[in-house]
């Protein structure tokens, strides 16, 4: 058996002496054997990759005898066997023929009759001619010797009779390549430290490289957290201080009452809010006087307000819940701002923000979760105007990549005016709501102890919705919660709100224009 | 936000012109209501139940679906919307409501018995004379009661409205509270006379009324209104009697509102008469009713009071809030467009005098008046300024620390997950083979989703649930979370506090305990915390073998931290117990670590 080195040498020396190999079928090993096809292919590919040779494929059909065909070539056709079995003088009994030739008797008889070689004489067969030429055998022999037949019709006929089968033969025409040489150089697959050390990289030849990168084994940040980080950066750029929102449990007082949200408001229904079984209530309010002021403004008014005119109950305010909005933290921070102002004797403006979880007692579906993240910003200063709020919203949303916003009057129990922020969506061809904004009510701020000229503007939006738009998700459960796909976390791109968000949020044309 | 369906043709006729969808949407947008859809009852029904179930009896008259702000009860019907939009466009003046005493000077009386204090203490009433009902306005009349009941009346708990054909009943009327078995009448649209106990059973499974029964069902006495002949008017807040029912032929309407909140009772009555006095022979007039509390709980008086409330707003306040420089006259012109009659004050140049009609119960403070000026001016026409508030940005230190830990864990090759903070009690304790000590978990009262029973006290359940959803992911799986848990703490104002923790897991064909241990060492090193000898005094951390039911026996350790001479256990790590894996549906070995992050602040 020839090794691949032997075959390589054979091909290269043949090329060297003959200039080309017309057909690799002609190659024979030293002991005269043909070379297996697969071995030839392997060697040719290897040499071609080194540009030592070039080759083209030769495809041709070859006809081989089947077992039946070989049988005919060796011992004649069925009809010839029948003819030969018929005694030139006495003929042969039909029953005797079948005994003598088996299966061939029946097939051969028909053909021999047709060729008028024999005829029936009573229950005997007798010869009609003295001698025959067995053309079928000759055809079979021609095919065996040449791999084909001079008459295509005959080939077709023999194929139909299953004496012959066609096979595709592949061989190669080989020529010298640009780097033809009798000597085979070992090619390197990679640059190694040894090559650098001994300088062999200068003379070493390298295998052709197939580019295919391996994914790195790094860690990954959650897409929602990446969008959160972008919002945080916007707030820091604009000088905002982050609020301590690490308290999921809140009292109804800070979540509703301090915000001048009346106790019969539908949001305070157990159908919408997670109240707690344990701990159910808390009366640990640090400032009873402030609680009294809140009670007063709800039930009888004050600070220029007529109030809601109902019987405010401390028991309602004491109910603990999972906060329904981060505004509960904002109300607490503004109260602290009022306390600091009192202690310092002068007011200092403040800008606060938070991005954290809030809870709603909702039935979960593709667009609603019982917990989600809220982005909230608050600015407190003397004599802020609605124009300031609008102007600031333009700056904020511009940084988010949303250049075109407008404002709709809306209602919110703790802001007056309240403005919903809309952005034009060319894809949907309509204005879509992005968030809410407004000016906190004087009943809320003055009860805290802030001066009437201190105005507080605030706005809020969800974190999940822009993230879903950005990453093309339509089920919130696939973003937040355990039903997330780790492949999604590991493959989603980095977030740059200003670069991409606008296009995804408001449509391509709006930003490109 | 309530949605009101108004008849498109009726509305555009009232507004005096046709609108395209976009034109009308813009008008609504600027006024502060939201046009949702142009549809028809038939179209809505087909969408809901499919075309094959909707026959021709369902109307295909076009209707507009409009979202109304939750505090604008005066916009909950066609009459209110069309009136306000006409005034907003300067095409009409707001109506002036008047109470008119009958020619003989005798008012109808509603006498309130002391027993009602126990169940539904207040009632107010009014009469509309010579009303002309049509099919359209009759439907609006019914729809408005429905919208009021669902919104300001808080599903009839605060207020319930009853409307009656006055010509079928005779005053004086008495509002009483009686034992259910002593109340007998034929309810609206029924034929059978029943007592109130039977009535409760009769309506138990009623789709519409069933939900209101619990408001009074367990009370020993039920509220009930009679006329002078002991004919029942209504059993509030459940149902009226069939005897006094309104039809298209009704001329004189008696409206009563019973309430647990008197302020809201008055608002509801005012809204009803303000909207439908439009169809009286003399529009916008109402006949008052004398309301007498037998026990003098409230002073006797007549209802409704339709006089506008006179209030004032400061010009400089309005200009300062809006960023405009409007004159008192300009402010008044703008307010008039919002149905608030306003005139510059004669005494004070810096003041406008505003008459707040009874329909505008949302106006509590001059900030509400300022808002109406801004809406009439147009929010989108206001000058844009940027507040020149100079402040210094600052992260919340705990969030900054958490972000540092998150980045380090990701740099170490772990992927961040973000599970929910609410979970079942079992997931938080039993599934981790832990016993509930009984005094740490914050428990929820009435969750709609049954598995939300507690706020997690550990990050591990959520992380393991995330692994369960990702079992097809190629191994190893390395995930982490840095997030808040919550525990009870009576020393806090809210009797609980959040605790920020770090959790990471490693899952593979083998446990990978050394991977988790290595990650712990790396994370603490990055948090500037060094491994130290437990017998020394230096600040730092060490680990010590422990038997923790969450982990496989002899394959876990507690993490000790010594800071300024004080030592505490901040967490643990180990190979998760196979029973824990089974509970969370995991079939590959997993190692985990979890520790408190807050000591590193």
TrEMBL record, chain A:
* Enzyme Commission no: 6.1.1.20
What biological processes does GO assign it?
Answer: phenylalanyl-tRNA aminoacylation
Q: Domain of life here? A: Eukaryota
Q: Where in the cell is it found?
A: Cytoplasm
Cellular component, GO annotation: cytosol; phenylalanine-tRNA ligase complex
Q: Does the keyword Transmembrane apply?
A: no
Molecular function (GO) terms for this protein are:
ATP binding; metal ion binding; phenylalanine-tRNA ligase activity; tRNA binding
Question: What cofactors does the UniProt entry give for this protein?
Answer: Mg(2+)
Task: Reply yes or no: does the keyword Cytoplasm apply.
Answer: yes
Outline the extent of the Aminoacyl-transfer RNA synthetases class-II family profile domain: 226-493
Pfam families hit by this protein = PheRS_DBD3 (PF18553), tRNA-synt_2d (PF01409)
The alphabetical list of record keywords is: Aminoacyl-tRNA synthetase, ATP-binding, Cytoplasm, Ligase, Magnesium, Metal-binding, Nucleotide-binding, Protein biosynthesis
Q: Which InterPro entries match?
A: aa-tRNA-synth_II, aa-tRNA-synth_II/BPL/LPL, Phe-tRNA-synth_IIc_asu, Phenylalanyl-tRNA_Synthase, PheRS_DBD3
Q: Which family does it belong to?
A: Belongs to the class-II aminoacyl-tRNA synthetase family. Phe-tRNA synthetase alpha subunit type 2 subfamily.
PANTHER family tied to this protein: PHENYLALANINE--TRNA LIGASE ALPHA SUBUNIT, PHENYLALANYL-TRNA SYNTHETASE
Q: What is this protein called?
A: Phenylalanine--tRNA ligase alpha subunit
Q: Which gene encodes it?
A: FRS2
TrEMBL record, chain B:
Coiled-coil blocks: none
Biological processes annotated in GO: phenylalanyl-tRNA aminoacylation
Where is it located? Cytoplasm
Reactions performed catalytically: tRNA(Phe) + L-phenylalanine + ATP = L-phenylalanyl-tRNA(Phe) + AMP + diphosphate + H(+)
Chief location of this protein? Answer: cytoplasm
Q: Which PANTHER family match?
A: PHENYLALANINE--TRNA LIGASE BETA SUBUNIT, PHENYLALANYL-TRNA SYNTHETASE BETA CHAIN AND LEUCINE-RICH REPEAT-CONTAINING PROTEIN 47
Q: What is this protein called?
A: phenylalanine--tRNA ligase
**Organism (species):** Linnemannia schmuckeri
Q: Lineage of the native species?
A: Eukaryota, Fungi, Fungi incertae sedis, Mucoromycota, Mortierellomycotina
**Its gene?**
FRS1
